[in-house]
Amino acid sequence: MNNRYKEKLDEYRRSIDRLDSVLIYTLGERFEKTNKIGQIKAINNLPSSDTDRELLQIKRILKIAKEANLNPNFAEKIFKTITSEVKNNHNKMKKN
Question: What's the confidence (pLDDT) of residue 69?
Answer without folding.
Answer: 98
